[in-house]
Amino acid sequence: MATTQLARQCVQQLTPYQSARRIGGHGHIWLNANESPDNIDYPNPEQRLNRYPEFQPPELISAYANYANITPDQVLATRGADEAIDLLIRTYCEPGQDRVVINPPTYGMYAISAQTFGVEVVEQPVDVNFDPDYAALAKIDAKLIFICSPNNPTGNLIDLAKLEVLALAQQDKALIVVDEAYIEFSAQASAISRLSQFDNIVILRTLSKAFALAGARCGFVLGNAAVIQCLSKVIAPYPIPTPVAKLAELVLTRQLASMKQRVEALNQQRLAFKQQLEVLPGVEYLFNATGNFILIRFKQELFSAIAEKGIVLRNFTDKARLERCIRVSIGNPQEMATTLEAIRAFCQATCGEICL
Question: Keyword annotations for this protein (predicted)?
Fold first, then answer.
């Protein structure tokens, strides 16, 4: 098509990120997108939608700063963490000149956003335990180094002592971007305390997971005030719609207890699910369980068989080092029980053994 050829060459050649919604599926149990299983009936505050929203709504910024125990000038609100990734690349990387580093297997949007802007992507292999190779990252020449913690899909957490060494090695050379989309499920591993020590550490956060607001699209960049000021030059003029800002402020100020209860319940369900998986002979390996999901390597390909039962999971078997791996989001107790029953039946049928 002639209009397709008008697009930039890198866009013509780009393979878009395959989100859970793009991939789709058919079923009655959806455990493929790492969403919260509960749909909270949040109140809808009165709003005047004839007016443009604040560029960075002060109440929202203050609420998140208080929640994260940092100052408001260290916070930028974005349309989900995805916009934050995109924004960092557009702000700090010259197309055709600069590079970003990712540590696959990891979240796919780091590479997609870079490729969209003609920025080179360097894939730094992780070690045998799927942890980042900090020594190699310390020597690499790039503008942005993305590290997801807990990592999606493997669940690996960042080593905070090694992060400090890496930040020092890359001082005045690169920003170390720690994506903490799932950090509420492993709060002890957060790098938030390092923001005051290292001006080249940047943290990404979201309300999509633990706060059960995936549909609202509200995320945050946390970092040095100078980084926030640079990003503020590039972000859209009205990034956070008024209803989203009001809703986000509400959950950050008056519903923190509910979020913590949700996290505790999901963590308990995740632990119970993992313990039940450990005894199944068809399960070859269980990855770290630190977010609201768990990655499982089966001895035989399972995805199609489970999908036929109306259970939609996330298939990673086409990714390097993740052969026969399926990611399961932690749903409600009934969803997890039904999924476990389907997996147990699959194990019994394929392993020739009775799965207790």
Answer: Amino-acid biosynthesis, Aminotransferase, Coiled coil, Histidine biosynthesis, Pyridoxal phosphate, Transferase
Tens-digit pLDDT profile for residues 231-252: 999 999 999 999 999 999 999 9
Whether 69 and 178 share a structural domain? yes
Cα three-residue angle 310-306-104, rounded to 5 degrees:
115
pLDDT for 352 equals 58
Q: How many CA atoms lie within 13 A of 339 on its CB side?
A: 32
Per-residue confidence band for 36, with pLDDT thresholds at 50, 70 and 90: confident
- Distance of alpha carbon 180 from alpha carbon 158, whole angstroms: 10
The CATH number of the domain where 324 resides is what? 3.90.1150.10
C-alpha–C-alpha distance, residues 134 and 270, integer Å: 29
The Cα–Cα gap between 255 and 80 comes to 19
248 and 264 inside one domain: no
- pTM to 2 decimals? 0.90
For residues 144 and 177, membership in a common domain is answered with: yes
Residues 6+ apart with CB under 8 A from 203: 177, 178, 179, 180, 190, 191, 192, 195, 221, 222, 223
Q: Which domain holds residue 285?
A: 2-36+257-351
Mean pLDDT of the chain: 90
Round the CA-based radius of gyration of the chain to a whole number and report it. 21
CA distance 185 to 188: 9
Show the beta-strand stretches assigned E in the chain: 29-30, 75-78, 99-102, 120-123, 144-148, 175-179, 201-206, 219-222, 283-286, 293-298, 311-312, 314-315, 325-329
Q: Judge if the upstream peptide bond of residue 105 is cis by omega within 30 degrees of 0.
A: yes
Task: Provide the 3-class DSSP secondary structure of residue 76.
Answer: strand
The CA distances from residue 175 to 110, 167, 285, 330, 338, in Å, are 14, 8, 34, 32, 43
Establish if 46 belongs to a structural domain. no
Mark whether 126 and 219 lie in a shared domain: yes
User: Is 105 a domain residue?
Assistant: yes
Task: Indicate if 161 and 290 belong to the same structural domain.
Answer: no
Q: Judge whether 42 lies within some domain.
A: no
**Residue 24: CB partners within 8 Å, gap ≥ 6?**
none
| One domain for residues 131 and 142 | yes
For residue 52, being part of any structural domain is answered with no
